[in-house]
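Dear support,

I submitted the protein below through the web form. The confirmation email said the job was done, but the results page showed an empty box. After a refresh the structure appeared. I'm attaching both so you can tell me whether what I see now is the final result or a partial one.
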Amino acid sequence: MWEQAKALLLGLLQMIHNAMTTIGIGTNFAWGLAIIILTLLVRLAMHPLTAKQMASMQKMQKLQPMLKVLQEKYADDKDKLNQETMALYKEHKVNPASGCLPLIIQLPIFILLYGVLYDLTKTAAFTDVTFLGMNLGGSVLTTVADALNLVDEAGTRIPNEQLGFIMVFLSSFTNLGLLFSHLGTWIFNFILLILIAYLTWYQQHISSQGNPQMAMMNWFMPLFLTFICFGLPGGVLLYWGVSSLMGIIHQVRVAKKTSEEMKEKPVLYKEKPKAK
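What the results page shows now:
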């Protein structure tokens, strides 16, 4: 079933690519546009789930002042704190787990799209395919290795599968002149990687506003994902970047709406008011 789903998604990507070439767009540029269009279609299909997730986050942010009061009031009684917290959720019809469900449902779809793009970038169809200067079939590691013309002791080109981050980094550091003389080979993939790192940081920053416990995660996740992305093909990075950008646009809209609504401060009570 998984392979059938991948085949269906791959067929859709190829269909979009063929449509692009039919109207006169070059095959290389058409592959980049096809990846962007497919990413947009997937994000649009997932919009109802994403909207539900964002709405849940919005409600949770609005309840933060009330939750803080409960935490101060029942600081020495964890059981009572949990009881009152659940009562607050029930009163405002908020399910703290509802924000996670859309993510769980979306994850297989995004992994599926990643698998399709990763497999495609390893085929002959993607040999030397570029889009806006980016090598869609090559990663930052492989494009830097191409610029440095890395070979083994026998003078044979080192296979991409054997390239490691430390190997490429050390070779780059000791061959800066050669690296920058072939700047166009790797710089566009590297710029895309940096943009993805920034988008990840910004997305984390928006999600964790008002939550100091998440400050460390704001820096850890971008650095961690940047390290992972060093070995990912440009086609996968293009999908990731476009998807992240769309997610941020949606998140900024929700955050703006939440900010406006939270200007009206809720009335907070240390004790529930007595009925008249």
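Response: this is the final, complete result; the empty box was a page-load delay. Residues 139-232 form one domain.
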